[in-house]
Here is the input.
Amino acid sequence: MWDQLLVGAAPGDAITGNVLLLQRELAQLGPSEIFSQHYEAGVQGEVRTLAELPTRPNRDRPLVFHASMGSWPVYEALKGERRLILVYHNFSPPEYYVEFAPEVAGDLVRGRWELEQIRDRVELAIAVSEFNADELRQLGYRNVVVVPPTPNVDRLNHVLPSPDMLDRISSWGPGPLVLCVAQLLPHKRIERVLAAMAVLQQEFLPDARLALVGVDRFPKYTKALHVLGRTAGLREPQWVGRITDAELSALYLRAGAFLTLTEHEGFCVPAVEAMAIGVPVVASARAALPSTVADAGILVDDPDDPMLVASLLHTVLTDDVLRHVLVGRGVSRAKQLSAATSLPQLVRAVTDTEPELMAALAATLGGTTASDGHRVTGLPAGVRLPSPGAAS
Amino acid sequence: MAMNEIDDATGAAPTPVPPTGDSVAATVQQVRDDLAARRAAGAVPHLPVGELDRQFSAVIEAVDAGIVEEPPLALGVLPGTAHLETWRPTTGGLKGLLVGRLLHVWSRLVGAVVRRQVEPFAQRSTEAIGALMHRQNKIQTFLTRAHLDHLRSLEYRVAELERELDEVRADRTGTAATDAP
Here is the structure.
């Protein structure tokens, strides 16, 4: 019934995961396709090309557009769409990219302009956090609905940790492992993580080790990070790169703490994954992180102070009582933010844009439906059907 | 609204508010207080505002300037002592087999002699190259640090001059205001 469009689709990508989960739900109501400008091997069977968008099966229904970056071809393709539902996953601040990838900075600047241009055709704007909603309001959007993303955080609980990765982690030594899961992007401020870990090793825990899980996107930034790590005296940082879920599961199993000191984040799915699996989170109090982590982790309001971050990490890694409290709160918080909670909200927000369709569906189902959003057998959770009276 | 409920107005999961007397907040505050006390006592240096950014931008400049190369030369890539292959006959037939066997024995003898002569030389060469690489890495690290320190001192000097300029401007404004009729 509803089709979706995104700029890039890749296995393991949080937005792609979100899109696939939503499609699975919407497909229960009728045909539902996903279109993407770029896609990587592993999702090509599930995604259609941007060139196929004009032939999409549900042209009379709004197109669900997931915005995460500006793209001229996508903007051009959107000109053919009269009705849109915008899901705003956030644009990274362009100023971080001027130094390392000016073309990406250009895409990000243009992305905001594109959002302003399509505003009048957007029937519903969905932001994945209050932080993102504020950004949309600044772009002139009204009636913005906040629906958290739908991270499939439980997936790692169902994956056997990779034995090879467990062996590899053992070879790093007996010290506590601090895990940072983030693409090596400038706005993630990986340099803060390296500096804090260097201080942690030099002042508190010489055996502590850092594992960085994330794809290297900009060689110049990555090179500068390696040099900074060396000049700061950081011992044996493990640049793990892209890994499988089984390998990530092994890393979370052995991690003593999850660390992110990003400057800009629309939601931060990895922090939720860490909480779900029982790893205490230390995060910068920046962007959407305070609302995502809330009181279930330690929020650092001055992430540029490596001594402060190292002191807090040391406490988290050595204070068993604190760890116990953080793990308990983290698991509860992750449940609140899991797909089981947020996916029905997203489905409801999307399907509510077509009250007549829902009324027709209610009539077809012969009055067995409820208007209070309760699940009806055969329908995705979250679908709200009007009462039969309203259908007439 | 209870903490675990979904906010229907916004659709967002509510952000839990730490209760008063929260143990995590208290521990974090304790860590902050300890650090502040250590800094006040001079045990830990105060960190100038923007210091990490300055250091990292200096690193980026060093990378741009090509002063640092990644990775540094690794000693492990040095090959071991040269391996000399023993000669093996290529022709067939009885004659070839006989000559080949004789030559094979001869080549082993020659090989053993050559190896004895070459091995100490190869060993010394390997050690010399290793020492050179070690020295090169040390010089590279030193130059990188010196370059970064130089950049940082320049940045401090610029900040100092800007501050002095502001003070001079403020003084002038004050004097002008006093002199005004």
